[in-house]
Amino acid sequence: RHGFRRSPQGSVLWLFTVMLCLYSLFFSWRANLDITKPLFLGVVERFWLQSNLVVCALSGCGLASVCSTLQRLIGVKVIGERAEWLTAIVLIALQLHFNFRNCNQSSNYVVDKFARNILESMDSNAIILMRGDLPGNSLRYLHYCEGQRPNISLVDQEMMTYEWYLPKLAKHLPGVHFPGNRWQPMEETFSDGTITFNLHRFLNENKHKEIFVCIGLHEGDPTWKWSYSLWPWGCCEKLVPSKTIFRPEDWIRVTSNMYNWTEKYGSFDPLLWEAVANEEMWQARMKTPFFIFELAERPNQAESATAQLYTYAYQLYQEMVKTEEHPVNWHKNYAIACERMLRIHAQADVAVDPDFLLSETIKHFSLYVEKTEDDPQKDAITQMVSHLKSELQRMRKLSKG
Predict the structure, then answer these.
(1) What is the distance between the alpha carbons of residues 282 and 348, in angstroms, rounded to a whole number?
(2) Cα(215)–Cα(238) distance, integer angstroms
(3) What does the pLDDT look like over 155-190, one tens digit per residue?
């Protein structure tokens, strides 16, 4: 109450001040995230919570010092004490008034629902190879802390590259076979007895289980491509032997309406992880039509098979863009699907009016150009839209003539 100089804890306060300055300088020096991206900016902002605690403590001591000085100058003890309490109450009330609504997360279950939807979509006895903070932390919490889906196994891709991870974890995953001590692309046996294995060997050792990846596989180890393919599974993908025949009708039935997700698109601040979870859930709906479209783009396959795949992708995209608010890239994907259908509509099993297809292509390419911000092909798409409009006018003149 007597300020920095007279307080017996003055040296401790100065120590905290020095620590705050050193922490701020060190963190500012080492923080290497690209803060032009909203999520990374939010991550950096949240790291300052640690230093803010010290700032709050120092502010309280500073207020006590000011009020103590004021009390000595006025000579009336009660005025200094009341000023101290009044100032503290006003500052706290202002913080609550301006920040309580944003800080109150008592009804925020977005990340919880994200993780529950993913866990509930998995097959029994499956292995989930996790990657990233969002799926890794949220799935681990529900699985280990709340006991959700005890019949699946969670394995962290990044941590599997550390020497300590498998010796400590493997014993808790009796149904998962690890063919070594550590994961790395090059298989080696070191002088200390450490054995490394690549992803291809891991998959072969666990053929008896369904294996999923959430979200994405580590780019440093492409060995899985030797014998496996990635098929879309909501936010995640399923690793499937390459010789497995893909049946689009069955896969559409399995992956459609996989999640019970009711959050509106774009309803969260992009600084928050909730925005990432919401984006992943919305984009999950696009993965199956995108995958089918990519299959249709492959060369050296029967025209009937290509036409069938394009038709499936077109129908799925058409249903998706009926939603009022959705990711902007859906417009582009649907427009491309319409353009492909325009090329092969004679071979397609479903009769679609060429005029309608061309109109939809123009409409959704235009919407995409209007809403997108950072596509380097934006100018090229604009030029193509102008060309397509001319083609549409020519087509209509020919049909009338």
Answers:
(1) 29
(2) 11
(3) 999 999 998 999 888 888 888 999 999 999 999 999
Give the residue among 336, 249, 329, 339 at the shortest CA–CA distance from 282. Answer: 329
Q: Can you name the residues that pair with 233 across neighbouring β-strands? A: 236
Closest to 143 (Cα-Cα) out of 133, 153, 134: 153
> What's the CA gap between 341 and 335, in Å, rounded?
10
Q: What is the pTM of this model?
A: 0.84
Question: Under a CB-based contact definition with an 8 Å cutoff, are residues 337 and 317 in contact?
Answer: yes
Tokens of 132: 């990233």
Burial of 308 (0-12, 13-18, 19+ CB in 10 A): buried
Please, which residues have CB within 8 angstroms of residue 294's CB and are 6 or more apart in sequence? none
Which amino acid would we find at residue 343? R
CB within 8 Å of 283: residues ≥ 6 apart: 235, 327
Burial class, 317, CB count within 10 angstroms (exposed 0-12 / middle 13-18 / buried 19+): buried
- What torsion do the CA atoms of 265, 271, 277, 281 make, to the nearest 10 degrees? 30
Helix, strand, or coil (residue 173): coil
Q: Is the pLDDT of residue 8 over 70?
A: no
Q: Which of 271, 307, 314, 264 is nearest to 290 (CA)?
A: 314
Amino acid occupying residue 289: P
Q: What is the CA radius of gyration of the chain?
A: 29
3-class SS at 145? helix
Strand, coil or helix: 311 = helix
Torsion angle of C-alpha atoms 271, 277, 279, 280, degrees rounded to 10: 140
Tokens found for residue 297: 């783009």
> According to the model, what pLDDT value does residue 76 have?
67
Pick from 354, 348, 251, 351: nearest CA to 303:
348
* 130 in Cβ contact with 214 (< 8 Å): yes
The predicted-structure confidence for 181-210, as pLDDT tens digits, reads as follows: 999 999 999 988 899 999 999 999 999 999
